[in-house]
Amino acid sequence: HDTTVIDDVMLQCVAVVRAFKGDVNCCCFSPNGKLIAGASGDITCTVRLFDSRNGSELAQSPLKGHQYYVNVCAFAPDGRILASGSTDGKVKLWSTETCKEIGTLDVHASGVRSATFSPDGTYLAAGSSAGYTRVYEIQSRRIYRTLFIKESSVVACSYSPNGFLLATGSMNGEVRLWDPYAGQSVTCVDADDLCCSSCVFSPHQSTDMVLQEDGSYQQCYRFILATGGQDYTVKLWTVASADGETSITHWQTLSGHSGPVYSVAFSPDLTHIASGAGDKTVILWDIGTRQAVYSMGDHTRYVTTVAFSPNGKGLATGSNDKTLRIWKLVDPNTTMGVEESEKEPTTVGECQMAKILSERGVKPGSPVGGWSVDEVAQWLRKVGLQEHEEIFRGNAIDGSELLTLDAQMLNEDLGITALGHRNKILRAIRELCSTTRECDGVPEEFLCPITMEVMQDPVIAADGYSYERSSILSWLAEGKQTSPMTNLPLSSSSLTSNRQLKMLIEKQVASNQQKESTSEET
Length: 522
Description:
Elements: E1 3-6, E2 9-17, E3 23-29, E4 35-41, E5 46-51, E6 63-64, E7 70-75, E8 81-86, E9 91-95, E10 101-105, E11 112-117, E12 123-128, E13 132-137, E14 142-148, E15 154-159, E16 166-170, E17 174-179, E18 184-190, E19 196-201, E20 206-211, E21 217-229, E22 233-242, E23 245-255, E24 261-266, E25 272-277, E26 282-286, E27 291-296, E28 303-308, E29 314-319, E30 324-330, H1 345-359, H2 373-382, H3 389-394, H4 399-402, H5 407-413, H6 419-436, E31 458-460, E32 466-468, H7 469-477, E33 496-497, H8 499-518
Antiparallel strand pairs: 1-2, 2-30, 3-4, 4-5, 5-6, 7-8, 8-9, 9-10, 11-12, 12-13, 13-14, 15-16, 16-17, 17-18, 19-21, 20-21, 21-22, 22-23, 24-25, 25-26, 26-27, 28-29, 29-30, 31-32, 31-33
C-alpha cells in the first residue's frame, strides 16, 4: 500500500476492505480500538465488523436483522453494545461479545439517519428522516425524550463531552442544540444554506468560573463543534453553556474541498480534524493553524464517513466506491501503529482545548487573588458597594489586597469608619471567598504553586507536585515542558487527579466558612 509523509508523520494505508456490496454509509472504531464497524447501503442490509489491525472481517460478521439499508452505527462508550440505524425505521442493539442482536428500540416513522450514545452510555439519540430525534434509555429500551424539527430530516447528531447538550444537524442547514434531559431546544444556528450533513462535538471541554452581575461565580462549560455541509466547507463553532444559557458562535471556516462535506471527525488529542467529501477526498486539518496538512484521494467516489481510532493513530474512511480504507499515522522514528495506545491523548487534548480557547480570547474566570484594581472596582459595583470604589482605587486595592482586608484595615487604612459599611464589605468578601474557595488560614500545600491560590481540582504532574488542573494545563498549552517547581524537564504530560488532597481542601474550606459565619465583626 502507499505511504505518504505528512510533516513528521507517516500516513500509511493498512487495508482496503472490499466486503461491502454497496455504499459504506458509516464507520466507527470500538472504544478499545480493536474493532471497526461499518454500516452498508447494500442489498444485504448488514453491519460488518473488522479487525482494525488488518481489515479482516470477524467470523461472526455480518450482523443481519435490518430490512433496508443501514445508515449509521455507533459503539457504546464501554464497547459492549453496538447500535445500528436503518431506513427500515429501526434501531437495533448488538452484543459485541456474541455479535447477536440483544434488542430493537421503538420504531421510527421513517428511516434512521443518525445515532450517538451519551458519554456515560445511559442514553442513545437517533435522528430520523421525519425530523424526529428520539432519545432512548438503553437499560429500559424505552423512549426517554422526543425532539422534533419541523419539515426537515435529522442527518447528524452528537453529544457534548459532559452529556449536557445534544447537537443535531438537519437537511435545512440548521444546527440545533438541545437539552436532552428536558427535551427542549436551547439555541440554533444556520450552518449551511442547504444541508448540515455532519456535526460533532470536540472530545474535550473547558470548565471555568465566570463572574456574574451579582458578584457570584457561575460554572461555564465551553466546547468546540465542527460541521460539514453542502457549501464544501468545514465550519468550527465555539459553544458556551452556563446556568441554563447556551450560545454558539462561528469561529472559523475551513475551505479546501470541492464538493459537499459529508463527514467530520476530531482526533482524540484535539490536534486534527478529518473531513470526507463529495470530491472523493479526505482532508486532514491542523486545528492549531486551521490549515489543511494533507489531502488523500484514494477513494474513487464520494467519501461518506471518517473516524479516528481512540488513540488518534488510526483513521478509517468509507465511500460510495464500496470500500472501507484503514490508515495509520506513524512517527517514522517509532513503530507505533493503529492498535497501540497513544501517549496521554486525554491530557494532550485538554491542553489543546485550553490553547484554542486562549487563542479565541476566552480566558477562565480570573481567581480573586489575580484581580486587577479595575476588576475589584467592577465587583464593588456589582455587589452594591460602588460608593467605596474611589477609596479602593485610590489605595490600589487589587485582588490579593482585597483578600487580606479586615475590620481594622478598613477603619484605619481606608478610612471607612461606619461599622455598618465595614461589616457589609467584609460579608461580601466572605461570600466571595466562599464562592471561589479562596480563604485565609489554609495550609500551603493546598495552594497551587503556579497561582498561589486554593486549588479546586488538584492534579499530580510528572514532577510529583500537585497543581490546579486549569493552571497546569495552561502551562503545558504554552509549550512549556519543564516543571514549574523544579524547572527540570517533565518526563510526560500525564496528570492524575489528587482526590485525597481535594477532599482535605474541601474539608478545610468548609471549616473556615463555619468559623467565619459564627464570628462577629467589631
